[in-house]
Design a protein that fits this description.
The chain is of the alpha+beta class and 138 residues long. Helices cover 41% and strands 12% of the residues. The chain contains 5 helices and 2 strands; from the N terminus they run ββααααα.
Length: 138
């Protein structure tokens, strides 16, 4: 069994009744020939690692930029599920999560997390609880 290795860039994501559809842009020189030859509908086992600015794997668990972390958490459907299960919110939507997080941290905008150490620390604690919850519910 031969595996394919290439770099792709996420350009779109949508959902239909059968699941999520991820669209990647692959440079023409990197498209594996076997993927080009496979029929539409062929199934693959996929392993993906996000690459950071330093060309190294991006580790979300070690994320220490509170502004970036807040943005990532608010878009994460699992974080939304976590908040619902913890009884913090009732409606599963990104807008509800954003409003909850701002109220919880006492900020009007994510950008305030750059200078508000207390709110940033509280965000990191929320993320730790979320990470523990993910491990228990995986």
């Amino acid at each position: 069994m031969k595996s394919s290795n290439f770099e792709g860039v996420k350009v779109a994501m949508k959902q239909d009744r059968s699941g999520y559809i991820l669209t990647l842009s692959i440079h023409p020189d990197e498209v594996p020939e076997e993927i080009l030859r496979d029929f539409v509908g062929a199934r693959y086992q996929v392993v993906m690692v996000r690459i950071g600015e330093d060309e190294m794997p991006f580790n979300r668990n070690n994320l220490r930029n509170p502004v970036q972390l807040a943005g990532i958490l608010c878009k994460d459907p699992m974080f939304c599920n976590f908040l619902v299960e913890m009884g913090e919110i009732q409606e599963e939507s990104e807008d509800v999560v954003v409003k909850w997080l701002r109220a919880k941290l006492g900020v009007l905008s994510r950008s305030e997390l750059k200078d508000n150490r207390e709110a940033a620390q509280q965000l990191f604690e929320i993320n730790e609880a979320f990470t523990e919850w993910k491990h228990l519910n995986a």
